[in-house]
Amino acid sequence: MSDSSRRPELETASVKPKLTKAGSQEDMLAVEASPYVKFAVLEDLLNAARANSLWPLTFGLACCAIEMMAAGASKFDLDRFGAGVFRPSARQADVMIFAGTISKKMEPVIKQLWDQMPSPKWSIAMGGCTIDGGPFKYPNQYAIVEGADLIVPVDVYIPGCPPRPEALINGILKLQDKIKAGRRHKA
Ligand code: SF4
After folding, report:
1. Count of beta carbons in the 10 Å neighbourhood of residue 66
2. pTM metric for this prediction
3. Residues 155-166: pLDDT tens digits?
4. What is the pLDDT of residues 89-104, one digit of tens each?
5. How far away, in angstroms, is 86 Cα from ligand 1 center?
6. How many structural domains are present in the chain?
7. C-beta of 144 in contact with ligand 1 (< 6 A)
8. How far is the CA of 169 from the centre of ligand 1 (A)?
9. Do both 82 and 31 map to the same domain?
């Protein structure tokens, strides 16, 4: 291997930067710095920090919320995974856990809460009701929303009626993997 292949920065640094139309110093600086500044690493670090400090919204819709509360209590202890700080304000939360049947009356409230959450934000559909209406889905029903994804983009689905706290923890770990890999729901 030649010296130059072992030290690519010397080669890159010798390339004369082209000025843009504006010809600003910032443009030149950006071109010169590009071999040394790796934004991908920064993004990885940010994603690791985001994944390990998820703050769910304090928000329950029906029976699945009891399992969610159990997951946050001492026996299961969501704090082990950095996701135990349930926030009372949507403006401080970055994960919405749909835990329970979504009634049509709640739909506008959920939309408002989701819009109040700062980006980047994620959502988990916990239980059959939030996946597709669950046991309350039947022809001509008029009371429930048949799936959380009809309201907001969903990142992780957790099946069950109700899913146990371990299943919710598994769902949170899956979400952490997804965030660390830089994958997002389709907004
Ligand atoms: S999935 Fe089952 S436990 Fe969960 S909210 Fe629906 S009916 Fe209740």
Report:
1. 14
2. 0.77
3. 999 999 999 999
4. 999 999 999 999 999 9
5. 21
6. 2
7. no
8. 17
9. no
